[in-house]
Amino acid sequence: MRITIHDDFDLDKIIGCGQCFRPRRLADGTYLFPSAGRALRLRSLGAGEYEADCRTDEWDAVWARYFDLSRDYAALRAAIPPDEPFLREAAACGAGLRVLRQDPWETLVSFILSQRKSIPAIRGCVEQLCRAFGEPLEGGLFAFPAPERLAQAAPEALRACSLGYRADYVRDAAERVSLGALDLAALETAGDETLMAALLSVRGVGVKVANCTALFAYGRASCAPVDVWIRRIIDRRCGGENPFCRFGGCAGILQQYCFYYALQEKQALRD
DNA sequence: GTCCAGGATCGGA
DNA sequence: TCCGATCATGGA
After folding, report:
1. Which of A111, A132, A143, A234 is the most buried (most CB within 10 A)?
2. CB < 7 Å to strand C — which of 100-129 in chain A?
């Protein structure tokens, strides 16, 4: 199907801003988004027109929500006050990115794996997990493995996916989700505090990983994860004071603009 | 060989 | 409550 998306939509920034680890750009320029046992192929036709390999009803029911299309990011950027020059700069740089609503299980596991790993290393880990334990989809793709599958996995098989000491954390999370002790679907309608408490009850999940899951899977835009990159920004560019606290319900979106901005600065240093 | 990566846990002060 | 050591692994 062909769809029109307003111009505040940049696929390179969406897949490159550090929020997701499997979506990617294929050699032919098509963008691939695997999520929750499906996969979307999206190709830009220019001028805000896109070709998507799904039906209109699937787009409306699944992907519009996934891409957070109901939120007005331009208005959000415009509302950053002039006395926040760094935030305005970062938001201008990241204009077009959108904070995805990803599958909670995949997001939780991916960010459990993220601790003390580089983004390319996380990508590699997640990919290995999918190939080793995920159900095959069309086109040589693999779905992210179900919790039941990971709960049954042999410890050495998990470690073979470069999980390192995080293998025990993943196994613990898989057991709790597959047994129903942690109901990720039910948490969709929970309040922020309830959601955070549930996520923090998982071994290997601290405040940062819980915030990432709340923001990138549950759309809790008030959650703004503070990692080493954001910490650096707060210390060096914001006088040591966390600026996201001042923005309540959209703190997480601004945080993501800043994270993307930091990635771009690092990239620029290499070039 | 050394250092660091979207951190979390644990024990001891 | 706070601080430091430690946790596998891969890439620069």
Report:
1. A111
2. 116-118, 120-121, 124
